[in-house]
């Protein structure tokens, strides 16, 4: 394209390349969803339809962006993990974040009616913010994921007790808050059990553990050999591995794999050991 005298303005753009060889997490979060959840009468503490909608939008994002390895969602937030070798958009932070945020938001709005058929959306429409953070080691990345799942647990236990006091106990929000302030996890479990006959352990896993979205390959049996040997990846020509072919096969396999949503522990080693392809 011909140069114009205006083209110098391009030089004002700042580079925002994320560091190479680091895990990238893009976390998005709904804007003002406390108010949004009131407007659409979300059930408290957990509206299952709203969580299913978040999960459906996250699945759509993962389908459109095969570079995403795994995603984890709670409440109005979702974290999407890109492999440390990811080269999408040359690892430009703003490109990665804005593409995820707009793809997610578009699907959230598009799929709304399937989950809330009786309540059409009206302005102000739902929107999400996003940020990219990189983590240099697998340990840092796993600690990040653990941090979000611990947050899910702490918030859900609190919210379950808080809303039981209000919905079953008949107290107002202020008294419920006062009663729970400074309480330990054991106290909340005790309030739920002795006052409301609720065993927190029996609450649905989706509320207690959040949602993990991943590509469904075959699980590795606990204790089995850690290497996943893909026949295609063993192809060689005159003894030289066809790394390009392997890369393409991996890509194809990723694109073909079914995407599933699970509500499981991602803090313990077992989850990662049984799915060695995630962090390899
Ligand atoms: P901000 O714009 O700063 O993120 P926010 O109001 O979205 O403000 P968050 O800390 O993100 O604040 O909290 C999200 C809130 O949305 C929750 O506290 C809860 O009230 C509500 N919410 C989100 N998902 C659900 C759900 N599935 N069921 C019930 N309430 C929900
Ligand atoms: P990238 O993802 O890199 O932005 P792109 O295909 O969107 O790739 P752009 O440089 O952004 O490439 O160009 C957008 C293209 O979309 C245009 O070249 C044109 O082909 C098409 N397009 C956009 N708006 C219109 C329009 N109103 N009418 C016809 N074609 C359009
Ligand atoms: Mg926020
Ligand atoms: Mg929010
Ligand atoms: Mg939030
Ligand atoms: Mg374009």
UniProtKB/TrEMBL annotation:
<feature type="binding site">
    <location>
        <begin position="29"/>
        <end position="34"/>
    </location>
    <ligand>
        <name>GTP</name>
    </ligand>
</feature>
<dbReference type="GO" id="GO:0006400">
    <property type="term" value="P:tRNA modification"/>
</dbReference>
<protein>
    <recommendedName>
        <fullName>tRNA(His) guanylyltransferase</fullName>
        <ecNumber>2.7.7.79</ecNumber>
    </recommendedName>
</protein>
<feature type="binding site">
    <location>
        <position position="76"/>
    </location>
    <ligand>
        <name>Mg(2+) 1</name>
    </ligand>
</feature>
<keyword id="KW-0342">GTP-binding</keyword>
<feature type="binding site">
    <location>
        <position position="29"/>
    </location>
    <ligand>
        <name>Mg(2+) 1</name>
    </ligand>
</feature>
<feature type="binding site">
    <location>
        <begin position="75"/>
        <end position="76"/>
    </location>
    <ligand>
        <name>GTP</name>
    </ligand>
</feature>
<comment type="similarity">
    <text>Belongs to the tRNA(His) guanylyltransferase family.</text>
</comment>
<feature type="binding site">
    <location>
        <position position="29"/>
    </location>
    <ligand>
        <name>Mg(2+) 2</name>
    </ligand>
</feature>
<dbReference type="InterPro" id="IPR025845">
    <property type="entry name" value="Thg1_C_dom"/>
</dbReference>
<dbReference type="InterPro" id="IPR007537">
    <property type="entry name" value="tRNAHis_GuaTrfase_Thg1"/>
</dbReference>
<keyword id="KW-0460">Magnesium</keyword>
<feature type="domain" description="tRNAHis guanylyltransferase catalytic">
    <location>
        <begin position="6"/>
        <end position="136"/>
    </location>
</feature>
<dbReference type="GO" id="GO:0005525">
    <property type="term" value="F:GTP binding"/>
</dbReference>
<keyword id="KW-0547">Nucleotide-binding</keyword>
<dbReference type="InterPro" id="IPR024956">
    <property type="entry name" value="tRNAHis_GuaTrfase_cat"/>
</dbReference>
<keyword id="KW-0819">tRNA processing</keyword>
<feature type="domain" description="Thg1 C-terminal">
    <location>
        <begin position="139"/>
        <end position="268"/>
    </location>
</feature>
<comment type="function">
    <text>Adds a GMP to the 5'-end of tRNA(His) after transcription and RNase P cleavage.</text>
</comment>
<dbReference type="InterPro" id="IPR038469">
    <property type="entry name" value="tRNAHis_GuaTrfase_Thg1_sf"/>
</dbReference>
<keyword id="KW-0548">Nucleotidyltransferase</keyword>
<keyword id="KW-0808">Transferase</keyword>
<dbReference type="GO" id="GO:0000287">
    <property type="term" value="F:magnesium ion binding"/>
</dbReference>
<dbReference type="Pfam" id="PF14413">
    <property type="entry name" value="Thg1C"/>
</dbReference>
<feature type="binding site">
    <location>
        <position position="30"/>
    </location>
    <ligand>
        <name>Mg(2+) 1</name>
    </ligand>
</feature>
<keyword id="KW-0479">Metal-binding</keyword>
<dbReference type="GO" id="GO:0008193">
    <property type="term" value="F:tRNA guanylyltransferase activity"/>
</dbReference>
<dbReference type="Pfam" id="PF04446">
    <property type="entry name" value="Thg1"/>
</dbReference>
<feature type="binding site">
    <location>
        <position position="76"/>
    </location>
    <ligand>
        <name>Mg(2+) 2</name>
    </ligand>
</feature>
């Amino acid at each position: 394209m011909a140069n114009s005298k205006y083209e110098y303005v391009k030089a004002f753009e700042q580079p925002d390349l994320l560091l190479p060889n680091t895990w990238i997490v893009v976390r998005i979060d709904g804007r003002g969803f406390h108010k949004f959840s009131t407007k659409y009468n979300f059930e408290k503490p957990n509206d299952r339809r709203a969580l299913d909608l978040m999960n459906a939008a996250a699945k759509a994002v993962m389908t459109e962006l095969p570079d995403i390895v795994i995603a984890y969602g709670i409440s109005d937030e979702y974290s999407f993990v890109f492999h440390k070798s990811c080269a999408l958009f040359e690892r430009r932070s703003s490109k990665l974040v804005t593409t995820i945020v707009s793809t997610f938001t578009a699907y959230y709005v598009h799929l709304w009616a399937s989950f809330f058929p009786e309540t059409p959306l009206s302005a102000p429409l739902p929107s999400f913010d996003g940020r990219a953070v990189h983590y240099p080691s697998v340990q840092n990345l796993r600690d990040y994921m653990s941090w979000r799942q611990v947050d899910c647990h702490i918030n859900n236990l609190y919210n379950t007790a808080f809303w039981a006091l209000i919905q079953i106990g008949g107290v107002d929000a202020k008294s419920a808050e006062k009663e729970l302030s400074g309480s330990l996890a054991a106290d909340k479990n005790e309030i739920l059990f002795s006052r409301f006959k609720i065993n927190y352990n029996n609450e649905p896993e989706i509320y207690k553990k959040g949602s993990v979205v991943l590509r469904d390959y075959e699980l590795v049996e606990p204790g089995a050999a850690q290497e996943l040997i893909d026949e295609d990846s063993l192809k060689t020509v005159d003894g030289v591995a066809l790394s390009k072919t392997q890369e393409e096969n991996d890509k194809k396999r990723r694109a073909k794999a079914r995407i599933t949503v699970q509500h499981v522990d991602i803090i313990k080693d077992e989850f990662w050991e049984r799915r060695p392809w995630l962090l390899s």
